[in-house]
Amino acid sequence: MRSYLVLRVVSKLLMPFILLFALYVQFHGDYGPGGGFQAGVIFASAFILYALIFGVKDAGAVLPRGILRFGIAMGVLLYAGVGVFNLLVGGNFLDYNVMAKDPSHGQHLGIWLVELGVGLTVASVMVTIFFTFAGHRDRPQE
Amino acid sequence: MALTVLAIVRIRNLFAVVMLGSIYSLLAAAMFVVLDAVDVAFTEASVGAGISTVLALGTLALTTDREKKPIHTKLVPLCVVILTGAALIYGTLDLAPFGAADAPVHKHVAPTYLTEAQEKTTVPNVVTAVLASYRGYDTLGEVTVIFTAGIGVILLLGNWRRERQPGDDQNA
Question: Among candidates A64, A63, A51, A41, which has minimal Cα distance to A7?
Fold first, then answer.
């Protein structure tokens, strides 16, 4: 893949815009279509594009396996943690009203955090699945 | 869409099948847009047409891109398909007509969501409000499913075994 100059330049140009669009979908999910699931997938697709063009090894250097596994667990923990936090401050599980002084602020904060957790897990899982699939062949036979 | 499905059934080259599947997802996404379900269309386009295609291509790279000739008779699968199809069509007879405002699905909780979601959550996108707030448990479950899928792939295909000491394999 080293020699495809056009592909390499175009994908490098596209990467920041894909990531930016993913962040927009993530944090604008309250106001327009989108949310954690879609944003996570778009975010992951940027890294999958990078891995397709530059190879899994280089992409793995950008996003090490440890960070990905941390992200997978962190997203679920963040989501469930919001629920437990609501329990601790005196509400029901995943009842965001109690997260801030004003119920609507609580709702916004809760949904924002929960969507962040969804996006984190989805993006990490998608990139991980692709890396493991694509990296499986390079693995020496045991 | 029907044409794509017929082509998928006929073609034996799995690479073309994956591409046709992607086209099918894109057509489905366009159909969702026409039906004003933008969030669903978004998901279908990114997950169905995007990531699934890439993952299927990755799987093809690991295995083979030619479909094997069937060794069993086609009669039993045909019977199963016809029976299931007949059952599904029989089920649609009881459905409310397309677009009917008095369909049961519009009478149950949907009006509450549509009228209350704005003032209770003050989130302009009702889909997000329902997904993350009203149906928070469901979404937590979905995230857990994805989490489990990722862990499963890591356990099955990941090279975690190499990170352990060489002698550990006999004990495991």
Answer: A51
